[in-house]
Amino acid sequence: MNNDVEKVLYTQDQVNQRLDELANTLTEKYQNEFPILVSVMTGAMIFTSEMMKRLNFKLNVDYVDVSSYEESSESTGKVKLIQDLSHDIKDRPVIIMEDIIDTGHTLKYLAALFANRGAKSIEICSLLDKPDRREVDVEADYVGFKVPNEFIVGYGLDFDGLYRNLPYVGVLKRSVYEK
């Protein structure tokens, strides 16, 4: 797997340090709240899990599974809800946990969905942000790192279901995904 990675953008130590910083900020803000962390599966599962261990406040965790890729490496722009929440979010703060903000379609869809369901507030916490790919107006409230417009893998991000288990964030070699 490591041979398929062109370069490492952020090491495991760098990711851990940034997650500590994000967790401190969220803990300070949500100390007296009772938010629901909503992990956007499957990519955000590692990020969400690692963040949960660092958060020092009461919370519920839930997840949604959405897709805008339909078995390709390019977003279709159409978001499909595959698995919905199991919690009622009415009058509750919601923190959407995302692996990467790319085109923005998924997060725009989820924010609107949760607002329509009466969430008290909606914030987005994303490990990565790829602003050069944005197609809709959406920004995260908390971002781990900005990344270039390249194919990013590791730390939950995949190509064809692979590379999620890399402990770092890296750029996949073009020869791997253009086969």
Please sum up the structure shown.
The protein has 179 residues and is of the alpha/beta class. It contains 4 helices and 9 strands.
Percentage of β-strand residues: 25-35%
Radius of gyration: 16 Å
Averaged pLDDT: 94
Trace the largest sheet across and list its strands: 4-3-2-5-6-7
Number of helices: 4
Termini separation (Å)?
16 Å
Percent of residues in helices: 10-25%
| Outline | globular
Largest sheet properties: 6 strands, mixed
Number of DSSP-assigned strands: 9
The SS-based structural class is alpha/beta
Which regions are unreliable across 5 or more consecutive residues at pLDDT < 50? none
The run of helices and strands is: EHEHEEEHEEEEH
InterPro entries: HGPRT, Hxn_phspho_trans, PRTase-like, PRTase_dom
Enzyme class: transferase
Keywords: Cytoplasm, Glycosyltransferase, Magnesium, Metal-binding, Nucleotide-binding, Purine salvage, Transferase
Subcellular location: Cytoplasm
Structure characterization notes:
This protein is an alpha/beta fold and 179 residues long. The model has no long low-confidence stretch (mean pLDDT 94). The strands form two sheets. A six-stranded mixed sheet has the order 4-3-2-5-6-7. Strand 2 (36-41), helix 2 and strand 3 (60-67) form a beta-alpha-beta unit. It has helices spanning 12-30, 45-52, 105-116, 174-177; strands at residues 5-10, 36-41, 60-67, 80-83, 93-101, 121-129, 142-146, 152-153, 169-172.
